[in-house]
């Protein structure tokens, strides 16, 4: 078990040099003085200063290893980004130069096929109407003689 003992300094002159020293010996006032000192230091110090202070803490070999790994990772990301960009460019331009005209020609071909089917259906419908054994019988009471040739509808 550890015992904590508070040691009072006997020489008041040497304790005046410390930034943590206070005129009163109460524990509450010493806590207040510590918090006031830490706020003064943080106001003067910024993030760059704190990071630059890490240079003294981290050994040079470790700093060199970290630096080379970061530079290699950055180089890899840059190179792979260029390669992926080139691949995307090639695929996109190829699709536009080959795929778009192909799609347009297939669409035109589909339109032509649809028109041909329509024309065939119209011709078959006209032949059924003109044939004597038509599926549409003449109304009862009309004794018309079937005409030969093409007759427009309604006559």
- Distance between the first and last residues' Cα: 121 Å
Mean pLDDT: 78
Q: What is the number of helical segments per DSSP (H or I, 4+ residues)?
A: 4
The secondary-structure class comes to: mainly alpha
Q: Could you estimate the helical fraction of the residues in percent?
A: 55-70%
Evaluate the radius of gyration. 49 Å
Q: List segments where confidence is low: pLDDT < 50 over at least 5 consecutive residues.
A: none
Query: How many strands appear in the DSSP assignment?
Result: 0
Strand content: under 5%
Describe the structure in your own words.
- With 155 residues, this protein is mostly helical.
- Helix content is 67%, strand content 0%.
- The protein has four helices and no strands.
- It is rod-shaped.
- The termini are far apart.
Give short descriptive properties of this protein:
single chain, 155 residues, mainly alpha, 4 helices, 67% helix, rod-shaped
Topology at a glance:
Elements: H1 12-15, H2 27-44, H3 47-57, H4 60-130
Q: Quick recap of the structure?
A:
The chain has 155 residues and is mainly alpha-helical. The protein is built from four helices and no strands.
């Amino acid at each position: 078990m550890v015992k904590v003992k508070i040691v009072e300094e006997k020489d008041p002159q040497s304790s005046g040099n410390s930034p943590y020293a206070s005129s009163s010996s109460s524990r509450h006032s010493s806590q207040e003085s510590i918090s006031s000192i830490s706020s003064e230091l943080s106001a003067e110090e910024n993030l760059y200063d704190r990071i630059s202070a890490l240079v003294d803490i981290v050994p040079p070999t470790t700093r060199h290893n970290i630096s080379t790994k970061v530079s290699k990772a950055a180089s890899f990301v840059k190179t792979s980004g260029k390669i992926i960009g080139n691949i995307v460019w090639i695929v996109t331009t190829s699709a536009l130069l080959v795929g778009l005209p192909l799609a347009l020609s297939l669409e035109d071909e589909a339109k032509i096929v649809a028109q041909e089917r329509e024309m065939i259906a119209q011709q078959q419908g006209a032949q059924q109407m003109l044939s004597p054994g038509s599926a549409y019988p003449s109304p009862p009471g009309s004794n018309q003689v079937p005409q030969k040739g093409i007759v427009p509808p309604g006559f």
